[in-house]
Structure formats: structure tokens, C-alpha cells
Amino acid sequence: MLYYLFGYLHKEFGMPGAGVFQYISFRAALALITSLLISLVFGKQIINMLRKKQVGETVRELGLTGQKEKSGTPTMGGLIILAAILIPTLLFARLVNVYVIIMIVTTVWLGIIGFIDDYIKVFKKDKEGLAGRFKILGQVGLGLIIGFTLYFNKYVVVKEKINVSSIQVEHRSSNVIEDVRQNETALYAKQAVKSTTTTIPFYKNHEFDYAKLISWIGPNYRKYAWIVFVPIVIFIITAVSNGANITDGIDGLATGTSAIIGATLGILAYVSGNTVFANYLNIMYIPYAGELVIFIACFVGACVGFLWYNAYPAQVFMGDTGSLALGGIIATFAIAIRKELLIPILCGIFLVENLSVMMQVSYFKYTKKKYGEGRRIFKMSPLHHHYQKLGYHESKIVSRFWILGIMLAVLTVVTLKLR
Prior knowledge:
By secondary structure, the protein is mainly α. It has helices at about 1-15, 25-50, 80-90, 100-125, 130-150, 225-245, 255-270, 275-280, 290-310, 320-335, 345, 350-370, 385-390, 395-415, and strands spanning about 160-165, 175-180, 185-190, 195-200, 205-210.
């Protein structure tokens, strides 16, 4: 809203300084600061409100050190995160941008699903919360909306890149723009086009087109690329959302990890939405994607601000209200900037947490069927609980997971030039 207000003041009255709101970097900085302030200032008030409403966490007896002390800690703190993301986004982002709209829908959609789950647990005293099939149904529904929007919306486009040697520059055609570098020139088609192309790491041409998966159906296969694209979107959103939910098991782990991932996605969104940087890194240029930097700045600010209260010993838990939304936001954002195939690296913490649960359950069922008694790979799953069982303090576990998360984030950025 402020973007439009100051744009109007600059255009109509020439208000000094109002034009600075046209710059993404300036608005992102303001959004980050505002998000932090909302988390810190209003976070305390929301925590006190949750205490008064007796919205406390019911902690199961898992035999973990310090677990009993967590009982009664306010939950549903994800409301702080949602507010700190949505309010600055509405203030500083261009609300007509299709990518911003998609991210707002994702935040609200998964926030509602998580809130319903927490509400059932806290007020209905049902420890199971919302039935798993309804959670999955909600995630699939969101995946359908996001998938079809990204596929069919006319503003979701890319500018295809043409690489030519510097010798060929003088023979260029008039329908391209150029940026000459030392030994090569990256040319982007003037006309943006619909495409199901995405970034793929450690690959020479650095791009992969989902449509090629169904090229066997005939020459018009690109018309039916949505048959592949939409299910992939659904799978990624569901997997990452649940991964973040599983990771939210000890104080500050999911929050800090999400902040690291968010900062990395912000860098990727900025370079993908900027012609100069996209050309330098030799990656696809995505028009209008730069506006996502505003949203992700709010996301990072919300996570860091919430960490003030969620770090050990936690004064509040985010609950599913926050964790489902965090994972869904990360997945949708990565898909929007065509970097979803980098998720296994960037979200490596979420991935191993997910895998640890799948391996534990599968191996237990297998050994129970074969030997008559279930056996375990880990002392406990998810993986962070395994290390707790080994005697590590949870603050040490969280710190080391953060360090690994930073390493994975750096590796993710480096892949843009590693081919």
C-alpha cells in the first residue's frame, strides 16, 4: 500500500524522497525492519494473550531431558510469524504482482490449516489434532492452485537466453538485448514466453524443461506439460511443508533453519529478477520475480524476530500454525523462481529429518514382520531426537544444525556457477 501511496505522491506532487519507494532494495530493507519490529513488539503481547487463554503445549513423555519442563509453554506462536510476514508485505510490496499474490495465498492457506490443527489439539484436547488425510488434502489443494496459476497465468514467463560468441555480436538480430562480457555474450529474447523450464544444479546448460518428460506423446507435447508440472508442484509443496513440520521439534531449530533458507532464496530471487545478474551468472531471467525479494525479506525478519522468543529455553512454540506455513512458503517460493530442484541441497536439514522418520518407520515394520519384533535404526526419530537420546543438549544440536544449514546455503548459491 505504501508503494502506491508514495508512488502517487512522487508522480503528482513531486514529493522529495518519495521516488525511493520504486527501488526493490529499499522496500525490502524497510520490510525486513518492520517484520522484525512486529515480531519483537507484538510477539510479547501475543505470548501473554496465549498464556491468558491457557494455550499451552501438551508435551508427550518421550524420555528426553528437559521435555517435562516444556509442558504448558504457549503454542500457536505461528500467529506471530504470520502477522510479521503478511503486514509488511501488504505495506511494501506491489500487490498486483502475481508472485506476491501467490505467496500471500500460500501463507494464509497453510496458516489456516496449521491453526485448525493446533486448535483441535489445544481446545478440543485431541493430541492427534487435524487428521493427516485432511492436512494432505489441504496441501494438495494448495499445490493445485499454485501449479495451475504458475502454468497458465500470462505474467508467469521467462526470457529465453541465447548464447553467442563475441564475434557474432555485430550480426545480432533486432529482437534481442545484449550484454557483452569478455569472451561471451548472453542475449535474452525481447519477448517473454511461457515455459516449464527450471534450474537444475551441476548440469552444463543449467536448465531442464519438464515438458521433455512427456515428449514421447508427439510433436504437440508442450501443450500438455501441465500434466507433469502440476503433480511435481503438489509433491514439492507437500514434502517441504511436512519436512518443516517434522523439524520443529526442539527450540529454535525450524525457525533458525528457515531463516537461513529464506535469506538464500532472497539472493536467488534477486539475481533471477535482475537482467544484469542473471546474465552474469548465466541463469534464466524471470520478469517480475524481483518483487518476491520484498516478501522473503518479511519472511526472514519474521523468523529472526520469532527466534527471540523461540530460542532455548523457548517462551513460545510456533505449532503447526507456523511450521506448515514456513515449509509451504519455502517450497512455493523456490518453485516460483524456478529453483525447486535446488531444494534437496538448500533444505537438506528438512530432507534428512523427513528421511530419518521414513527410514525408522519402514525398518521397524520390516523387522517386526521378519523377526517378530520391531528394530530401530536411530535411537529415536526425527534425527534431532536421536542426538538428544545420545546425550547432546538441544542448544548444541540446534547450533550444529544451523551451521550445516549455512554450509548447504552457500553450496546452493555456488551451484549457480558450478556446471
